[in-house]
Amino acid sequence: MKKRSFKEKIIAKGAERMVMTIDEAPAYVTLEKPLEQCKVAFITTSGPHLKTDPPFNVKGDHTYRMIPGASQPSDIMITHDHYNHKPADQDLNCVFPLALLKDLAQEGVIGEVGPRHFGLMGYITRTDLLMNETAPAIARQLKEDGVDLALLSPG
């Protein structure tokens, strides 16, 4: 019996929409100005969102939650049950270091903290929607905000 590839196994389970291909190499961009002049935003799939926002669907969610740069750790919670986030519940900087970005801006290491940051839930069953809807929407908002550098972190 022929051994099936990972892609074939996924398709056999009826999850064709999860199979994605990348037809071109990722773009690498050189920073055009010194870090101390850059506006920086943070994006993570660790499941953070404002307590006032609807929680993520832990059975699979491609959507995002916008987190204002002025938010305090006490304004934010984590909805994600596919990893142990108890340490992050005690110190949000473990997965969403917005407070550390603020410190870096105050110290002059970075120019400023972006006005919007983005939380996603890392269990994303519809990667096609992530690639075709969610990621472009986040990119548009980062561009509107004049963000020079986005830091990405998995959950």
UniProtKB/TrEMBL annotation:
Official protein name in the record: D-proline reductase subunit gamma
Keywords annotated in UniProt: Oxidoreductase, Selenocysteine
InterPro entries: Various_sel_PB
GO molecular function: oxidoreductase activity, acting on X-H and Y-H to form an X-Y bond, with a disulfide as acceptor
Origin species: Facklamia languida CCUG 37842
Lineage: Bacteria, Bacillati, Bacillota, Bacilli, Lactobacillales
